[in-house]
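Q: Structure for this?
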Amino acid sequence: MIVEFGHFALVLALVASLIQSVFPVWGAVRGDSRMMAMASPLAIAMFLLVLLSFFCLTWAYLTSDFSVMNVFQNSHTDKPLIFKISGVWGNHEGSILLWVLILVLFGALVAMFSKNIPNALKATALSAQAWVSAAFLAFVIFTSNPFLRINQPPLQGSDLNPMLQDIGLAIHPPLLYVGYVGFSIVFAFAVAALILGRIDAAWARWVRPWVLVSWIFLTLGIAMGSYWAYYELGWGGWWFWDPVENASFMPWLTGTALLHTAIVMEKRNALKVWTVFLAIVTFSLSLLGTFLVRSGVLTSVHAFAVDPTRGLYILTILMVFIGGSFSLFAWRAPLLKQGGIFAPVSREGALVLNNLFLTTATAIVMFGTLYPLVLEAATGTKISVGAPFFNLTFGPLMMPVLLVMPFGQLLAWKRGDLWAVTQRLVAAFVLCVIATIGLAWFYAGSGVLVIIGFGFATWAIIGSVFEIIDRMNIRRVGLAGGFNRLKGMPRTVWSTALGHLGVGLTALGIVTVSAFESETVLVMHPGDTVEKSGYHVTYDGSWDQRGPNYVERVARYTMRDGGNVVRVLEPSKRVYNASGTPMTETAIATFGFSQVYFAIGDNTDDGGLVTRLYMKPLITLIWIGCLIMSLGGFIALTDRRLRVGAPKPARKSNRHSQPAPAE
Amino acid sequence: MTFWIILALLSLVVAIAVLVPLWRGKTDTARERNDEAVFKQQLKEVERDLARGTIDPSMAEAARIEISRRLLEAHRENSRDEEEATGSLPLKLAKLSVVVGLPLLAIGIYMGVGAPGYADQPLAKRLANMPDQTNFVELISRTEDHLRRNPDDAQGWSVIGPVYMRMGAFDKAVDAFERVLKISGPSSGAQMSLAEARIFANDGIVDASSVALLQAVLAEEPEQIKPRFYMAMALGQAGKKQEAVEAWNKLIAEGAENEPWVQAAKGERAALLDNNTPILAPQPPATSGPSKEDVEAASQMTKADREAMISSMVDSLAQRLVDDGGTVEEWSRLIRSQSVMGNKEAAVKSLENAKQAFAADAAALKVFNELSTQLGLAN
């Protein structure tokens, strides 16, 4: 009866979330400490209940209990263990359950680790989060219930979509969901601040870890999804401006903006209303993303749930939450006291500039994503907004971001000296020019756009680490002194540098791969050799073999560099037994940061094999950059030091002993 | 009973966890707003940072002043709040909702959406628990399990092949017979079975590989009816109308009037002679049978015709079963065909008819129920 216990636990969690929705916030408004104190145990209980129910569903998958509709529809006895487990969230019902699980997990984390948050704020935030939990628990239970049973259980399941039987699927959704859902906590804190009418620098300090955690996971989730699409779909593309990708990218953009304003707010007590606004926008975009993916309004590889009832339900949730929170914002935001002032040329100013670009970029992505939907709904015309639109609009917008990043790092708080910073960056500029010329020479690229792209990317890379080198100031204090300074540097300096370095590396990867990738499609017969980017690739032959739940045709290719074998690759084409669906499994050879990508197509009648080879220069930098960005975020997370938003006494600015910002 | 006790316990644990803070005395630290504590904490941190030298004294001083200002403000606000009277109605409501609302609402919703007391049905347990029951599907599943572990068991494959054929799982049957041939070498029996399975899997198209198999069988047993029947079909499909009609004539002459295949053969011959029947493929080269491309082109060309033919066959089967009755297998095949052809309404109707016809036969009803779940006809 484990399955039924899981079902009941889920229902109990819904009821608990309803209680949580009402009483703690009521207590906070009335000033009743006992009602506020209900929040923490309820949050923890909700988490344990949903966890229990998630385990029960996993149990049903592990034991192939086909009396559970969801298991019957998405599992198969032949499926390897890991995909039996990942199959739990590889379908609509299960993935929403995972969504809810992470939602309540964040609630429980706030309950457990926020010992020094004012009780009223904590209780209100947990209540606000419970509204979201209640809405989604009801969504699971009443429209997408994974625990529905079959009276006459069949003996075999229908198997999981083969495209999703991949280790990438096992990791990608949980990462992405932690990111998406994590912003719900930030949202809840923003709503709580609005309800209580109080917000200050301390608020930003309490919210910062949640913003960081969400942002790190969202970054990793998007990178993972991009890499998964790259090697699993077999087209060699790593980003398609697919609406589902955009859905996760929009909250990332505003989340990045939020990350930066939260710093300003924490340190300078400024931009408070804007920060709250961004918190609401970011979570609204997460909800929008969930709606787009889950409602089936889009048709893409992710749309494995197409059901209008569900779509309507999520749309209602979406409208209630977004409409409600913006109304609350319009009503209460004027009550929030404005904070510190700053000059346009200052670190705050640079961050505001960054925010402007990021939010404009978000608006563009949103337009490109939603316009086709709206147009189709209104006029019935089907258009598709693809890469050309985004390349023309999003690309140019990112260039000033890359340009300004190094300045922002070096500008002082409150009022900065742009001229002084520019002078300090001259060395970085020289290095950047040298690096650009070097790259252009190496890749034999001479297009204007390529040079510009290289220039901006290397500028961001060199500029990001320049602050650290600048701070070491080896010229003045010597090598040993420089290293002493290096050790003494606050972690935020490192996190900023790494975050910006990651952006630069990703940009470099994107520019290089867009400009210099090459594709070869040809029919190869066993023994044929083709030359690809300096390597000789020989097709040795192909054979059929059996996997646990598929049969595959494996082709073997040998790569030789000058006569030496450097890699043997075995891409394959699989046909899954249960569904009969064919899938391409690619093989990838990595050389430094570049990759050669193999995918095979159909056999020709005369024994040949359609072979696709791609050369992807520096492509791994795209994802390495994301990893480094996340690492930066992680370092920032470990820096729990105080940032007091106290005004710094005015001082004469001294160019050579530029004071370290009060971290 | 145990089930309900566990449900009750689960609710109880949650209720108690929430009630503990509610039952606490009211007199504790009056307002645990906690923000004053936070600011005090911050002051300490400034001192620590100053001692470690991470901030300079002037900044520490500024920070101290700022934090103290906030501390005072928070204190003022908190003492003001404290004066507000607190009624006890909301508190009572909170308690009531936890003690009464939580369990009642949860059980209520669960009764609506759940299947109380429905035991788990892990596959391993189900397979182990019913070894004697001659449930068709169970047996298949167990045989498949066995074959998965012993893929070289030709005997097993040759047993399950015909079963797949009867179930309509022709692709699986093809796979099974291919294995039999591969493991135990060519034999006319296995070759015949494989050819037949391929023809069925191809919706009645006799392709080149099937023709080769049939020819191999005929080389061994030239008089056998079955391979000649399919060869005649192949000729017809290849557009060799004259030869096909001759082949049919010869076959029909040999068989007795009441044999079922003679009827089928007559039908095929009539279809060939009918002028409206399209020639399925261009005349292939005289030296060999139809090439793969020809057959493929033909199957493309006449998809609509083929579908019409199949549906008329299904309809006549339906008519016969309704009029004269039939076996469980026949009914199952009818329902499956109708469902596969996308005619769900007809499939549901046939299912009802079948259930009526076997109302007294529990085993048959079970087969039908399973079939309906499998095909998604239940809802």
